[in-house]
């Protein structure tokens, strides 16, 4: 079944069927319904690529994600694809990994498929070396580029990101207000988001009079068990900290397991704060206090901005999303509420 067959069954010209498919207003409502009725009866689905060639739009957005098995990134892809679908856009997903050459290759392949725009889920696409961002700048010369949870300033690049620096600062201020004096920050990578989190931690402690040597921040593995093993290898005897902030919930739960194995009482002796407010937070005992960076809001706002860009409407190049500290059982605040 093709467009010629539809025109024959509907008793209209091929040009009329084409106008119906492209949403043209140069067709009467009666004729439009007649053509649509024949399409429904025959189960005809228009060829998206042929339609794209005629309309100069594939109605398709490319999505780049480093690792779809990562719960945080998987949720980001889900929120993005769902919102795009609500606006009538299809998605093409490419899982790139973290190597620069693989990111470049994946983006090039998507652009060759005549996509309307690119969405990059995750701040790791913003390389710390500005020269390594050139592939993004080159893509932005062809189509709009949306980056979630990262920020770079360039023509035709639009960023939606959480206020990571302020969020970690808020968490550190809370722990210091609880008279915690020996804080540790555990992070998994120095992506744009990772750098913002680390900076927020360091600056807050410096404001309290801590010297650079007194500020403890360690890069660690991302999984629960690897974090546990990492801490056990570093601190086989005593553990000198009374407060931990992490860049991921999985790392926080690894730290919680470490504390429980050592007989360190949480939150009485050690308070722990994770990041992302994921489902993992309610899968441990005590439940994990975490920073909610409102990923769904970030993705939805980003897609809405993209649609405005595609409609040639003016928008801000950067949208920041405030974060919230969600208190649960690994901090004294929620613990004391539950005990009262």
Walkthrough of the structure:
The chain is an alpha/beta fold and 340 residues long. It has helices spanning 3-10, 14-21, 29-42, 48-55, 71-86, 100-112, 134-140, 164-177, 192-207, 224-234, 249-262, 295-310, 332-339, and strands at 60-65, 90-95, 117-121, 145-148, 157-162, 183-187, 216-219, 243-246, 271-275, 289-292, 318-321, 324-326. The strands form 2 sheets. Strands 2-1-3-4-5-11 form a 6-stranded parallel β-sheet, sandwiched between helices. Helix 5 (71-86) links the parallel strand 1 and strand 2 (90-95). Helix 1 crosses helix 2, helix 5 (71-86) packs parallel to helix 12 (295-310) and helix 8 (164-177) packs parallel to helix 9 (192-207). The model has no long low-confidence stretch (mean pLDDT 92).
Largest sheet: 6 strands, parallel
Structural class: alpha/beta
Q: How many structural domains can be distinguished in the coordinates?
A: 3
- Helix content estimate: 40-55%
Which features would summarize this protein structure in a list?
Rossmann fold; six-stranded mixed sheet; 340 residues; 434 Repressor (Amino-terminal Domain); 3 domains; single chain; 12 strands; six-stranded parallel sheet; elongated; alpha/beta
